[in-house]
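Pilot study result, target chain (401 residues):
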Amino acid sequence: MKNRALYGLPEEVLFCKKCVISNQRPASIPEFKHKKNREDAKYMQIDKDGVCDACKHAEEKKIIDWDKREGELLKLLEKYRKNDGSYDCLVPGSGGKDSIFQSHILKYKYGMNPLTCTWPPILYTDYGYQNFKNWIDIGGFDNVSFRPNGRVQKLLTKLSIENLLHPFQTFILGQKNLAPKIAKQYEIDLVFYGENEAEYGNPLADNSNSLRDKSYYTMNNFNDMWIAGLPVQELIEKYSISKQDLMPYLPIASDELNSTNIQIHYLGYYLKWVPQEAYYYAVENSGFKARPFRSQGTYGKYQSIDDKIDDLHWYTTYIKFGLGRASYDASQEIRNNHIDREEAIALVNKFDGEFPEKYFKETMEYLDISEEDFHRLCNEFRSPHLWKFMDGEWKLRKTVK
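Predicted structure:
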């Protein structure tokens, strides 16, 4: 008898033969449609030869004519460039390496006049906040930051853990949905995100052009929206939250966007994107600093470091999908020829699933969740086809080899 697979996960766990990711890796879904059962969710595709879509895309990048792609970028920029001193593009970000790279290269290499916008982390790390300030002060950018209602954000984040085991949902919703609204407000028709999600495992077809799919950042009907695993109307009725309280987390209305000429592009479609190179660029041009210590759950220090809840997010990913932060990081580094698969397996075995104790107590106190309740929730969200309890501890049934 097979063990039950939750969340529509593939019942048989398969690992890519080139990297260390498995077919349990979730593809992106519109976050405002995220339900506990992950209805209609898609997962990493691994072909009959045992190769995942992300590795296949990495091979495709090697034969792309990047000079031609840059030429396409130059034409796009000329179309939207303004000479009256107003902003001609918008770059959302929190001052991490990728938003620094995007905004800086657009301004100082290509001569654009970007406005940057920020949905701040839930609980800033000291070094993350310093990197944000350096982005603006050393990098030299105008910035619009939107700080949401703290009481509502805390409640929604707590509910997203209780209902979805997803501590990062409120940040993702805000980060992804803020930019189109700011673009409309400031009459900016060109918005840039960094890498397409297909770089890491969304369907390959998603990378066929530079435009972000509108289904990820527009809505047709408020009442069809979900936040924290609950319909918005239930949140309003049960938790005394107003529609106005929820609107910052929700996407722009389709008819509102259609009344503009806004386009949202991935800069990574036009420029070859290598995370390590973006890091070095950010250090040199904006004073970006890595963490002063290794990120728990992995071996690196410079990715996803601005929010104290980041580490918890990666731990819950490990619980739900059997893949932790080291699996993601090592797979990306294999694809960029920085490490080989043997090294990656050793790193995954050493660091994946490491408990994020550094900020754990502070995070639980902020959210008013007891440590015992959090661990209970983790156990409830473990999929039986991934996990077994033996010798007094939870163990994955299958690990990368």
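One observation from the pilot: The chain has a mean pLDDT of 95. A full batch analysis is planned for the follow-on phase.
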